Amino acid sequence: MSRSKFFLLVGTLSLLGVARADDGYRLWLRYDKIADEALRQSYAATISEIVVPEPPAQGPGGFGDLGTATVAAARDELSAGLSGLLGTTIPVVTKASRNGALVLGTPCSNPDLLALVTEADLRAAGEEGYILRRVAIGAEHRIVLAANRDIGLLYGAFTLLRQLETHQPIGQLSIVTAPKIQRRMINHWDNLARTVERGYAGQSIWEWFVLPDVVSPRYRDYARACASIGLNGTVLTNVNADAQLLTAPFLQKIAAIARVLRPYGIRVYLPVRWSAPIELDQLKTADPLDPAVIKWWTVKVAEIYRAIPDFGGFLVKANSEGQPGPQNYHRTHADGANLLADAVALNGGIVIWRAFVYDAANPDDRAKQAYSEFVPLDGKFRDNVLVQVKNGPIDFMPREPFHPLFGAMPKTPLALEVQITQEYLGQGTQLAFLAPMWKEVLEADTHRPAADTTVARIVDGSADLQRISAIAGVANIGTDRNWTGHPLAQANWYAFGRLAWDHTLTAAQIADEWTRQTFSNDPRVVAPLTSMLLESREAVVNYSMPLGLHHIMATGHHYGPGPWVDDQKRPDWNPVYYHRADAKGIGFDRTATGSNALAQYAPGAAKPWDDLATCPDEFLLWFHHVPWDYRMRSGKSLWEELCLHYQHGIDTVRTWQKTWGLLQNAIDAERFAHVQGLLIRQERDAREWRDACTQYFATFSKMPLPAGVEPPEHPLEFYEKAVLRYTPGWSAGK
Ligand code: GCV
What we know:
By secondary structure, this protein is α/β, with parallel strands linked by helices. It is 37% helix and 10% strand. It folds into three domains: 26-177, Chitobiase, domain 2 (2-Layer Sandwich), CATH 3.30.379.10; 183-504, Glycosidases (TIM Barrel, Alpha-Beta Barrel); 542-588 and 625-721, Alpha-glucuronidase, C-terminal domain (Alpha-d-glucuronidase, C-terminal Domain, Alpha-Beta Complex), CATH 3.90.1330.10.
């Protein structure tokens, strides 16, 4: 569509004044009546009633195997959702009584269903998947929702509702799906005092002080949201863990949350503070090979399983950023992980051991350190241990190459950890839709000498036929009414779940689905809003850390620019360590003439990055120290390109301001005004990045701003002296 046509259409829509009030609490599960009468009628003609057979009185397996609470959740969601969307009550019955019945069942709860689906379908659906299909029976038809286990019915229910919410045709409905990754987990960095480390959406939703007596209704809505996108695990609190979590009173509180999450297929996992045996029970040591320590964990794990029978297992940050760990006792990460793994194995639990380690005493390039510590341990972990690896080797930067560990530990299941919360991409105030970034890492080819070893195939376990697989996203939610602070940041929670279920979905598909459900199906909203989403991550990269720059943000809170920072106690906490700007040029030489971090990648991956001529622009300064006057592919100098990237990022945000402004009457006033204000802030923040970074780097390049880059608003000292106080998600979290 041409730009002028688009503006005309949006203008017309504005005159219609269509939007209802919406505070964002319902996320993408809004179930408002479908306005298009013809479409509504066609859906109503296809789905007439919801058939949930009576569970057999007793018998092996009963009604599925997760219990009727899960089926009840599926039934209630379908009843509320279909009735809302179709604007009329859709009855729930126990036997199909009319054409268009939507029939739910598992093979053991509803054997008749077996006539409507095939063995092959059921095999393909596996433990958590489902079959959703329109089946003709003579002149009539049924909509079949079948699964091997109850949880599949719940996931299928959400999918059916999504079809309607996004206005998809269901006349030929035929979906058979199963998740590609087994453990699809949210990691909360919530503290027991309810602050959230790197959280920008209010307090922690977990009300520890009043639990287990008061169980907030919000927990159920959290569970619904997570289940609707297929998430099945949650680590309730911060990896910078508090040992108190493992005390009896806290286990009761955790058990109360687990009871709410259970019907939604969500298991609770807990973070471990390595020194818990010392802190809680005055043991003399936390040495993983010490018999008293082994016994302590064995007893503690038994206590946990008594309180939470389906407890998923532990997540551990050890010997990282001041956290204690087995290395305090000259033991390895494998020694630590295996102790916990043995303790939970009996109950089917797992241990997820984080590879986010870098040592203050180690002068080597921080990007290399996790690889150096973990690769020698490949094959030394128990079967129920996964090593959880961040997407890139530094720390959730706006853009990083994939972590070299993904190509280097074939004997160990590796979980991918991404950050849904936007610590380094504008936190709670800037738009950055992260699906394109996650797709970038999932699709990255590690070039291990085996066929098809993309990060996605290593993580889903198919590359090495791993027994377990997992993916984790650090949560971006809190007590803000809309859950995520920025109304459009809900899209990141949504995208994480959808990719965890099926990493082959495209970012564009996910943006489209989310927009339709969360805002509107009107093409005059869908097209501009999805373009904003899809452009946003690159825009943030451009105005903050373009061309492979990384870790040049302000200290502590990590909001805004701080390329000049050089006073942190650890060298690798200083931005100057990473950009290495000098009179010659800028960038971190990670080739053989520098830190040689490139040697940690398989030759096929490393080769294009190694050569300045073939290294893609987006990783140039990640791998090379490049002269200021280096001729880029565009014909411009590096200096010119750098400055123009900053400007381009700002220009993109300005186009969104215009686009969003045109949606005024097409979406509700509350969310419109909120995003409009945030876009004003984002444009200002982007200018701050440009003005601070270009002026600071000019002190080395000694070059003027190229044509097309606006002059700075303030001199460099203004930005260097600026102190940002009371930022969310940091000082309060400590
Ligand atoms: C939970 C970064 C963050 C820390 C975080 C750490 C981690 O360093 O700034 O807040 O701590 O990553 O992933 O453990």
